[in-house]
Amino acid sequence: MLQFKELKKLLKTDFANLPSIKMALVGDTATQFLAVAIKGMGISRNYNIDLFEAEYNQVERQFMDPTSELYEYDADIIVVFQSTHKLGEYHSQLSVEKQLTLAEDRIGFITSICSNPVLAKKKIIYFNYPEIDDTVFGSYANKVTSSFNYQVRKLNFELMNLSQQYPNLFICDIDGIQSKYGRNFMFDTNIYVGTEMVISIDALPYVASRVMDVVCAIKGQIKKCLILDLDNTVWGGVIGDDGLEGIRLGHGLGIGKAFTEFQMWIKKLKQRGIIICVASKNNEETAKEPFEKHPDMVLKLEDIAVFQANWETKVDNIRNIQQILNIGFSSMVFLDDNPFERNMVRENIPDITVPELPQDPGDYLEYLYSLNLFETASYSNLDKDRTKQYQVEAKRVSFSKTFTNEADYLKSLNMISKVGGFTKFDIPRVAQLSQRSNQFNLRTIRYTEADIKAYADDPSIIDLSFTLEDKFGDNGLIAVVILKPCDSETLFVDTWFMSCRVLKRGMENYTLNTMVECARKAGYKRIVGEYLPTAMNKMVEKHYPNLGFKKIETAETDLYELEVESYQSRECYIATQTNKQ
After folding, report:
1. How many helices (H) and strands (E) does the chain have?
2. What share of the chain is helix, strand, coil (3-state, %, to 5)?
3. What is the C-alpha separation between 145 and 141, in angstroms, rounded?
4. Which residues contact 570 (CB under 8 A, 6 or more apart)?
5. Among 80, 271, 281, 248, CA closest to 172
6. Which residues, in sequence order, are CB contacts of 273 under 8 Å at separation 6+?
7. In this predicted model, what pLDDT tens digit does every residue of 233-245 receive, in sequence order?
8. What is the pTM of this model?
């Protein structure tokens, strides 16, 4: 972790060319050093944080006064820090009857922020409350509803519930930081007395890092895939030398327990939707034996999306995995106990994340917990099926190699797409894809569930969702288009993103054919598309020209137009099954 002085130095570097994020910081204690830490941590993550810092202890005024500086600044992301200390001061001034409703009153205020029509499209990052044990009741505080301990714990619980109700509310878990590193690390009495700053200098980078974890997730910078070495990483020992009975795994005492609990964590990641892959220098049959036969293996072959076990380099195997998954290297994490292999992968694939695993496997989990590698801004129950989808994709890749003609291969897949507007069932998935899609995303505009529902309810908007199924399996919802009217004759492609899993199957042509058909039925004469470049979406830089759009030379940005009347349907081998609305 970078130290505060290192974050401060980063503010003296040239970061003007980094992508800018407009943020605001509002707190009830001194936040100057926190602001420095957030901006410095932003630079370390390749973002220029354009930050408005509100005056000291002005949270209520900034939010309740529509003419305040906060509203005038119009930030995209607002960070709110209402401290446990100030809450404790307020609690001590209340009658016992009022203390009983402290958590509800604070939740009411936060609800008013999230439901404010002006702020509804803002992303609100709210710090939860690190506990301060005032020992007024000791452990008996857990039975006293009016006690400060009880109210803080209740408040943190209700915050989690509230964040489920409001998709624009994200909880920054600084209570979790205190739980890991301790209250004495998080809070420095000397600094607090002299500055009213409740986060210590040492803790500031950890808090700023957690803020930027959430910000990066909101911006779609997330990890989707975990690639594992096997020997001395997933189990203790070398399967090829020690044999099935010789590797160390198990729930009893000893180092095998560490590997078993490590596998449990990986299993939970898989259930959450993280793609689990294997890259091992081994004979494939030998490498798979523990997954199939060892009684203490938590991970099974069905948990692994792509299994690469051979005598190629780890670099080559990771590249093969990337080609099958069709996701960016920056979305991948590689875990290996061998420092040589880690360095080799870092040098040859700079974008991949390669944690420096501790020498002692017993320390693996605590170290990985501290990195918070898999922060996300969205989750749906469909995520649990992701491994199966990529296993099926590996079969498609293998099957495609048996054809010399691409058209014959595409015809043989028997592809079917369900096309329809946004429904209450797929709105969460559409919003999630909006947050996660980076490579095939023409404008990379992020939307919440509330935004998507508003588009679904707007009769002037043409909203389209696409699924894709073939003889190997169902890919689920894989593409989204939002068309907005510019005038009576022109539709603007506000959003067009697609899962990279379905590239090179004609889905781009099929989607455009559908868009033009909808435009014709609605009486529009042209479709205008825009390409907004990001660090991740260069693959669609020529998307519109390749589909027959003509560049609008007078436009300030990359705008392209397509005449609807003269459009000829593009070739694809996908049949349509229309959703019933």
Report:
1. 24, 17
2. 45, 20, 35
3. 8
4. 509, 512, 513, 547, 548
5. 80
6. 379, 383, 384, 386
7. 999 999 999 999 9
8. 0.80
